[in-house]
Amino acid sequence: MSKNLYIVRHAKAEQSFSKKDFDRILLDKGIERAQRVSHQLALQMQADSTTLCISSSAIRAYQTAEIFIKAIKYPQIALIKEDQLYEATYLDILKLINQVPPHIHTLFIFGHNPGLSDFIEYVSNESVPLSTSQVVHLILDEGFDFNTLTSNTATLLNTIV
Fold first, then answer.
1. Could you list the residue range(s) of the whole structural domain that residue 116 is in?
2. Residue 103 has what DSSP assignment?
3. Three-class SS of residue 58?
4. Which domain of life does the protein's organism represent (predicted)?
5. What is the mean pLDDT of residues 45-64?
């Protein structure tokens, strides 16, 4: 069975000089777009017992993850908040994904650019400058698991903007 990897950039967030970047929240238009994109995704797939969702612990990424998991019917209590995804490089993201257990068939990563776009290019050799709320669906090449994912071992299937 193919392994599915969904990379999701956080939705549009406020620009604020009065709070830390980590603490920025989603704008109303960011919430609306994330809801629209997540509903499109939900028409294509629903979470099951082999799905895992991991979000950056930054507020805007976690808020985005909450919108998406509601749409795909993934339990909120199972959503993993990961500090390592905030300001992560593509290699940080890969290191995290390489720890995912083999029984997981569908993995969602909610985070930030430029790390996510760089990660997509590293594993698929496809350049995708992610916009806010954009979803990239990757399929791991035959014979690869999340713990063996590396450079050029995934194929970009589609994107939802």
1. 4-160
2. T
3. coil
4. Bacteria
5. 98
Q: Write b or e for each residue in 43-64: b if 16 or more Cβ atoms lie within 10 A of its Cβ, otherwise e.
A: eeeebeeebbbbbbebbbbbbb
Phi, psi of 136 (to 5 degrees): -115, 125
- Partners of 53 in beta bridges: 108
Where residue 160 falls among pLDDT bands split at 50, 70, 90?
very high
Q: Spell out the alpha helix ranges (H) of 27-152.
A: 28-44, 59-72, 90-97, 115-124
Angle subtended at Cα 12 by Cα 129 and Cα 94, rounded to the nearest 5 degrees: 45
In this structure, what CATH number is given to the domain that contains residue 85? 3.40.50.1240
pLDDT of the residue at 16: 86
Contact 27, 12 (CB under 8 A): yes
Closest by CA to 63, choosing from 35, 101, 94, is 35
Question: What does the alpha-carbon distance between residue 73 and residue 46 come to, in Å, rounded to a whole number?
Answer: 6
Q: What is the number of other CB atoms lying within 10 angstroms of the CB of residue 34?
A: 25
| Whether pLDDT at 1 is above 80 | no
Residues 6+ apart with CB under 8 A from 114: none
| pTM (2 d.p.) | 0.97
